[in-house]
User: What shape does this take?
Amino acid sequence: MKIKIFTLAIFTALLSAVNVSAQSQTDNNSKLHSPDGLFNHLSIGIHTGLSGSGIDVTMPVHRLVTVRAGYSGLHIGEIKFKAINTAEDYAGYSLVEDDAVRRAQMSDKVELAAKPNFWNMFMLAEVHPFTNDSFHFTAGFYVGSKNFIHFRNTNDGALDFLYDANNKVMDYNRAFNTHFSPIGLKFGDYVFTADERGNIDVRMKTNVFKPYLGVGVGKHIAQQHRLSFALDLGLIFWGSPKFILNNGKEIKSSGKEAGITQVFSWLDAWPSLQVKVAYKIF
Assistant: This one.
């Protein structure tokens, strides 16, 4: 709901900005860069923020509109953490007598590593509704990676005990028409199960094409000097994230408890806060 309200507000403001620029087209003194304002300047900049770091170029295409295109990548090293082993949930059941399940219960938590890897090419149009003012609205799109985060156990092939135990549980469910949950590593109401190679290999995937809406302050092309600075805040709409196993199967929720599914059910946009410094070439 918050994202929809934000989108509506930005869209309404963007329309208002375009209307302001249309009403002032006859005022030559209000032009952002020069009388023609079309491809008459070029700046190159570097930026960093929540959507990553990268490089871009900016050119004016209208007296109140500039277009910015470039690359942004978020590359962070491994983030290690421990996840709860759901084999502990079977204490007290007759199924616990199985050797594979008892072996799985010997470890209550398992170390995983998360590797964020988010890169995109982008093209953004910036509307400056107020002449000689640094405030601007931004709309455009990002195109790039589908994999936002890759989860994997730190020791390759070390989770064969979880794979064996989960197979026993699934066999038991089929034989006795029971509904025991899978044995694996719990993330809120998700349970990540190990594959036949003894690994948990999960990717959080988003859309390749990602629209963007935002606002900003500062100049992406300097008016009087060579250097300029800008700050932009917006949303990258990447769609509802999905957790995909290495075999291409989408992981389904195993319950209604509050957890990771509750968080990601509304996170269909990634917040972007970007700081930029640019140099005007001409």
In short: The two ends are 44 Å apart (CA to CA). Confidence is low (pLDDT under 50) at residues 17-35, 253-259. DSSP finds four helices and 14 strands in the chain.
